[in-house]
Protein 1
Amino acid sequence: MHQHHDHHAHRDLDRVEEPLDAANQSLSDALRSSFGILKGIMLILVILYFFSNVGGIGSHEEALVLRLGALKSDVHDAGLIWAFPFPVDEIVRLPTKKSNELTVASHTFYRRENEVGKALSFISRGSHSGLNPSLDGALLTADTGLVHVEWKVTYKFNDVRAYVSGLAERHVDSTGEPIDPDDRALAPAETLIRVLIEKTGIEVASELTAEEVIRTEVDQVREEMTGRINQRLRTLGTGIVVETVEMHEPTTPLQVREAFDRAQQAENAKQKKIREAEQQRTKILNEAAGASYDALVEALDEAERNDVPETRAKLQRVLEGAEGRAGEMIKTAGAYSSIVVGRMESDVAQYRTLLPEYRRSPAVLIERLWEQTRERIFSNPRVTKMYRPQGIKEFRIKIPLDPEQRRVDEVHRARQQKFDAKKLRPETWHAVGPEYD
Amino acid sequence: MKNIGTIAAAVFLGLVLLLYMCTFQVRFTEVAIVKTFGKPASEAIAEPGLRFKWPPPIQTVTTYDKRIRILEDRTEETRTVDHKNLVVTTFTLWRIGDKPGDAVNFLTNFPSGEEDGEKQLRTTVVTQKHAIIGKHAFPEFVSLDPMKRKLRSIEDEIGGAVATEVRERYGIEILGFGIKKLGLPQSVTTDIFAKMKTKEEGAAAGYAAEGEAQAQDILAEAKATEARIMAAARDKVAKIENEAEKVVSSMYKEFDEHPELRIFLDKLRALEVALSNRATLILDSNAAPWDIVTPEGRSAVRPDAAVE
């Protein structure tokens, strides 16, 4: 009975389990496929993990590999880089091949919201307002003046290993907060360059006047800044090199800018006057001795300082090559001398030729020469020949004026008449001037 | 078979966990100190690489960055010995010292973290800044006289004093110190502006006068140089002409035998030149060849007549 009962019970159970088996089957299938997908994803993740440190190095970059925290000796250039995944290897990339730019505005005045991007000439401050030390930056100069400068710096890395192993990433300000919170590879370099610019700017300005810093010694300031900062970077062994330090909009405080501009204009006018005088000087000396007047002045100075045959000879040589009025005078003198000497030589030659004949029969020679000359004169169509008949009592000659001279005289006369006519009218007195002379 | 895979995965994970708990990395930029039950080892590990340790809580590790760091202090007014107020901010380049005990010294002094060390360093800097600036006069910071200027040595003095104080006591090494802001109180800058204004106005007047004077000097010098050049040129001309005269004079002796012939030839030439262009020549009927125009003139031509 019991066995029968069990058998029935089992059969009942089988009947009940039949639909459950189908559900289990589908659940099992679902789990199996999910596990399969999970396995696949895990496999992909494992593969991705193993290749996580494989990548490219850009053309402007260099990379270093750290293995278990130690720096490997190779510096990798542009191309593919392969390394074990973290935590075994770590790749440090840096843009070392290109120049990086940095603006340091610590020494310039605070710009209000509506002044950002405006030119200095469009920004003003009341002449009685001072600089707020917590907002406005400025450089204190040797003459106890104040100037504003914004620095534009370009820098690059010359030793990536030195940079990575020399400079920490975290630098803090007076409140203990990071100075540059950005997690950039260049942030530490920029923070260091910024403080060195600030320090060196103060140092250089303390040795110069305000005018020298922003106007007359701008090149010196740039050179001093670059030189001193690079010296400090070398001493620290940071692998950073500053290429250029430029001053952007150096100016006196806006409160005194107007007075400064007036002084600047006055100086420009002074420079203009000097330039004009120098141009005039060049013109005067060019006209006097030509383009090479410098050489002549130098030879003159030398001969005056040290009056010896060598310097005198040099002066004569330089004079012979001179141009301008001096050169013209000398060349004319040379030509005249040649003509005089040449004519004399020709006279001597003529004399020597005629002398034997003259010794033999002087009267005939004289007469012949006279006849030849007279013939040439008489045959010249430009010579008017007149004959005074014999026995007349009076002989008058009327010579007409040269037509050219007559024309000149007429012009003068006409001008004089015009001038006299104007002088008679009071309203035209102002027009009477030298041009009528 | 299925169980073997599971067991292998569990063993692998267990090993990874054990490795994680019993090893640590020292980066090339770091220095590490192993603490056993909280007590630091006598020396720090500065060599980079993988290290072993007992798992926590037996041993723990503290690491510090051993590279250069920058620390700025607060901007504040400080007084010079000649009672001038300056607004000064400084920066310090520092790092954990590289002597064997430096990192441990730092950790012992600042067990709560690096921030405490930075605070202590800042306090030291501020104290020394006030103390040392207070010993110097204003012209030692900015002056036209190079002999008076001592800005760099003042910076070195503050940096040196800070370094002396923190090196042995805290294991901090100072690598550089500088002033990053040197200003004046707001009220003082107003006075400076007034002074600068007066100076610029004076300069503007000066430039106008200087320009005029310098231009005149340049022109005067040019005129004087021109005169010297022309004088030298005239000398040269005189020399050339004298030379020519000498040559000509030396030729005069050629005519010594019959100077009248040379004089006659010169007269002929002069006459010909004078009558070469637009001239009127009035000839007397007695002069040849017009003498033959009259019968008397022609009658004079006979065989027995003498030639005149």
Protein 2
Amino acid sequence: MENLLLIFTDYTIRNVLLGAIVLGLVSGTLSAFAVLRKASLLGDTMSHAALPGVIIAFLITGVRAPLPLLIGALIAGLLGTLFMSLITSTTRIKQDSAQGVILAVFFGFGMALLSWVIRQPGSEHAGLDRFLFGQAAATVESDVITMAGIGGIALLLIALFWKEFKLITFDAQYARTIGLPVGLLDVLVTTLIVIAVVVGLQMVGVVLMSAMIAAPGAAARQWTNRLGVMVILSAVFGAVAGAAGALISSSAANVPTGPVIVLAITVIVIVSLLFAPNRGILWSLRRTKSVLAPSPVEPNAQAHVVGSARPKGVYEP
Amino acid sequence: MTKDTSLYPIAVEDLTVAYHEEPVLWDVDVTVPAGALMAIVGPNGAGKSTLIKAMLGLVPRSAGHVHFFGRSYAEERQRVAYVPQRGSVDWDFPTNALDVVMMGRYGRIGWVKRPGKADRAVAHEALEMVGMRDFASRQISQLSGGQQQRVFLARALAQDADIYLMDEPFQGVDATTEHAIVRVLKDLQARGRTVVVVHHDLETVPEYFDHVLLLNVKAIANGRVEDVFTPENLRAAYGGRVDLLLKQEA
């Protein structure tokens, strides 16, 4: 009970908790779209590619204020995306290899910059290395406000362009025929995914942030067949993982928040993969058994019967 | 010299499309008269689907023009509905049949706004027309291939267009779906719409269609079925001996 009260009274714990929830909500929402676009690994590339942006932004501004560093991360992430599509459109290199190339080059460059900056005299650069694995305990109120502001804009855009995003995700070709600027909307979705990554960088770090783009959506897809429900569920999973990570790490000594958040979302994914109705592994095991034994009609089989007396595939003109 | 393209719902002039410098369509001229129900037939790799996609600007044109009612596609896209091949999307997308059909309304609804009651009614009506009324709330991955094809057709119907371009709607569908699609085609024609269908079954051409385009990279023949659907033209398009030689080379 005392611990619970601390959430509302302790300044640090409150900020960490709020920050982690915002992070989870934003990355969870975008995760749903990343998974459906089969671009979950984009988050991995983008978060690693953001590192040099953070360092260069620090070198230019000379301060460790959150907003300039996040803008640096955003620009680097978007540059990474741009180079990636240049590689795939002008060479025979496929998407996955291009992602690997961009990840390695940008992250390597960022690491080199980081180790050089840290060896410089002075103390302004102290804590820059926390962008690697994140350091949630250092989250202050202004960080939370920045995260909520950036994340709020991202969520608002998704609400506004809901049906457009749905259509380009399901059937981009048809979307183009009814006049949607599919290329532009693609860039917008990718930008929003990069924003979600950037929002989490301070707390979870560039290395683990990719999990928050891949995991919540994958877990949410297991439980529902409706896009709206999936996106909300994905956001809730992200937020729950964020809150769990913040609370667990604040109650136990020396447990870092970022990794605990990632462990929490991993547990949610495992539970979803195993136990979700219809799509879960246990469910399909049970179904396989009941197919081997005589069983009631499957939903698919029923669908064929309704339309046609003849069995499918035996069409004689 | 040039025809008055505004007389035709669809007029394709000197259309050439190439992939990696290899021509897929070569100097194709086609006019589709109003109210025509036209099949595009030709051997594999003849460029049938590419022709439709090039008309819609989905693949880049190397040369030539396409006019819809004498104007560019960008100006008339609201009057043109496209039915893509069923295999072009992932049917495991989390949505139901009605929602996919509703996408046919998005072009009219415009940005940001949500589909309203009238749009839902149109979507339900479109599902009814393809015999899928009872499947409105069915998750799309749980539909059979033929039912998925009919959902795509219903989406185009919900668009309420004047021209319908369909890419292999009969591909791998069950008999019920085939009958349902034919019924819709005849109904569209009766309502004065112009329909162009990529088709692969030569036997059913005279029964289902009144116009035909024989295509093999070049347009071999184009006109009323009774005039151009002849053994000579078919041989020219499918090339009996030529075809065999090509197969041996491959």
